[in-house]
Specification:
- The chain has nine helices and 15 strands.
- It has about 375 residues and is α/β, with parallel strands linked by helices.
- It has two domains: about 160 residues, Rossmann fold (3-Layer(aba) Sandwich), CATH 3.40.50; about 180 residues, Dihydrodipicolinate Reductase, domain 2, CATH 3.30.360.
- α2 links the parallel β3 and β4.
- Bound molecules: NADP nicotinamide-adenine-dinucleotide phosphate.
- It is an enzyme of class 1 (oxidoreductase).
- Keywords: Oxidoreductase.
């Protein structure tokens, strides 16, 4: 499974679901770019109907040659011997079953975030993957961005802002939920709807990435205080504080589907300065600016800006990493390891326990 073409590995993808994220992901990983680390082939598409699958290909992947095989069900993708890895782009509540089905067919998996509804489901999926000896990873693409690697180096190797003390991160999108049809996954608690699993998971990820030094992961377990605003059974806003007892660091992290966050969505404060991170949203950072310690007497403050323009959307960073893992016959990725996926879901579970959001599947 997976192969080497000249110097870079080739991976043949089977895509499950033809919604928004599947369109972004497939377009991005098949677009031409400079010095790709892997070759990605969209081998098959699984959709609830053939017409929807064909429309997806003609709308989003019209130039692929050969064109992907389109199936009117998901099982045919799992069964296709030409598919190396299954990309799961369905609503979170369906990830568990779709992962289990793909694993049963012996396929590797890249599964969108939130990986599952809760940590219990994730444990079941990860155990099944281990049993079948297949690769599996949560598609938390943010962690693979060069900006994140650079920022962590600035924080914990170069220590440009001294000792990190506090982090404020917000991911808000104005989703106008009430205008959506009842069938929308963003409205339906049975599909895992709510700001926390959809976008709060990014705010949490930023908190973990910026408050924890490379040595501390994953041994330091933060204490959590959380609150949620619930409307029609879904959390329209979640706010949570992570406190690390060993260092005393705090992260104030928020998500909402009611208003959009301004471009500067993240502030990291240290003893010797602070950093502002900018982007169209917390999932797509574009730059960060490092400022010295605030001098109340100074009239202007000069910051140093680090910009990270990416080709396309940047989904290929995670896809390339997965192709390399599979070419090396690895079952887990070091940037998004299984233990971290579980830890994230355990924290999300605790936020929901305190905030009150429950999914119908949880009783
Ligand atoms: N990484 C990112 O930046 C990012 C961005 C957006 C979303 N996501 C994640 O990707 C997943 C899908 O989100 P999306 O925005 O792409 O959703 P979406 O546009 O609603 O698409 C989901 C697709 O899943 C399939 N599906 C199967 N059963 C379904 C059901 N009962 N209800 C709705 N859809 C069903 C449908 O495809 P077929 O009819 O073709 O089978 C549908 O088009 C979520 O877990 C979300 O968190 C990630």
């Amino acid at each position: 499974m997976g192969s080497h073409n000249e110097s870079v590995p080739t991976l043949r993808w089977g895509v499950i679901g033809t919604g928004l994220i599947s369109s972004w992901f497939t377009k991005d990983i098949t677009a031409s770019r400079k010095n790709p680390r892997a070759t990605h082939i969209i081998q098959a598409i699984g959709s609830s109907s053939l017409s929807k699958g064909n429309a997806f290909v003609s709308q989003h992947l019209p130039t692929l040659d050969p064109a992907p095989t389109v199936y009117s069900d998901y099982q045919s993708v799992y069964n296709d011997p030409a598919v190396d890895i299954v990309y799961i782009g369905t609503p979170h509540a369906l990830h568990k079953q779709h992962c289990l089905d793909a694993i049963a067919a012996g396929k590797h998996i890249l599964c969108e975030k939130a990986f599952t509804l809760n940590a219990t489901e994730a444990r079941e999926v990860l155990a099944a993957a281990a049993e079948k000896n297949v690769f599996i990873m949560e598609a938390m693409w943010l962690r693979f961005r060069p900006l994140v690697t650079s920022l962590r180096k600035v924080l914990y190797e170069e220590k440009l802002i001294g000792d990190v003390r506090r982090v404020f991160c917000d991911f808000g999108l104005d989703m106008n939920i009430s205008s959506l049809p009842d069938s929308s996954r963003l409205k339906d608690p049975a599909m895992g709807a709510g700001s926390l699993l959809d976008i709060g998971v990014y705010a949490l990820t930023w908190g973990l990435l910026t408050l924890e030094s490379p040595e501390s992961i994953p041994s330091e377990k933060p204490r959590i205080i959380a609150t949620q605003t619930l409307r029609n059974g879904i959390d329209v806003a979640s706010s949570f504080i992570l406190t690390y007892s060993a260092t005393g660091r705090q992260g104030i992290l928020t998500s909402t589907v009611e208003v959009r966050t301004p471009v500067t969505f993240l502030r990291i404060e240290g003893t010797e300065g602070y950093i502002l991170v900018e982007g169209v949203g917390a999932s797509a950072p574009r730059s960060y600016t490092v400022y010295p310690k605030i001098n109340p007497a100074a009239e202007t403050v000069e910051g140093k800006k680090y910009e990270f323009e990416v080709e396309g959307s940047g989904f290929y960073f995670e896809a390339d990493a997965v192709a390399e893992n599979i070419a090396r016959d690895e079952k887990e990725n070091e940037v998004m390891p299984h233990g971290e996926t579980l830890r994230v879901l355990e924290i999300l579970d605790e936020i929901r326990r305190q905030g009150g959001a429950r999914f119908p599947q949880e009783g």
